[in-house]
Amino acid sequence: VSERVAADGSIVVPMDEKSLQAAVQKLLEQEVEAIAVSLLFSFANPSHERAVADYIHEVVF
């Protein structure tokens, strides 16, 4: 997923929703049984990680 959060929690690159959609679609096409979400420096700013998880929940469930 195209995005970047700095170590201080500032957003360097906003999350690209189209790249998120494409990544999730690829995983669904591969019929994965689980998806782990772990983004760099999410401990400093979890907004992108939460958005990814929310999107996955919307699409899968």
The radius of gyration is 12 Å
Strand order of the largest sheet: 1-2
What is the distance, rounded to the nearest whole angstrom, between the alpha carbons of the first and last residues? 20 Å
Question: Strand portion, in percent?
Answer: 5-15%
Q: Major beta sheet, specifics?
A: 2 strands, antiparallel
Number of domains: 1
Q: Any idea what the shape is?
A: elongated
Query: Count of DSSP helices?
Result: 2
Q: Which regions contain 5 or more consecutive residues with pLDDT less than 50?
A: none
Q: Specify the helix fraction band.
A: 40-55%
Oligomer type: single chain
Q: What's the total number of strands? A: 2
> What's the overall average pLDDT, rounded?
97
Order of helices and strands: EEHH
Structural class by secondary-structure content: mainly alpha
Secondary-structure map:
Blueprint: E1 4-5, E2 11-13, H1 17-29, H2 47-60
Antiparallel strand pairs: 1-2
Helix pairs in contact: 1-2
Task: Describe this entry's structure for a reader.
The chain is mainly α and 61 residues long. The protein has one domain (4-60). Helices cover 44% and strands 8% of the residues. The chain has two helices and two strands; from the N terminus they run ββαα. It has helices spanning 17-29, 47-60; strands at 4-5, 11-13. The protein has a two-stranded antiparallel sheet. It starts with a strand and ends with a helix.
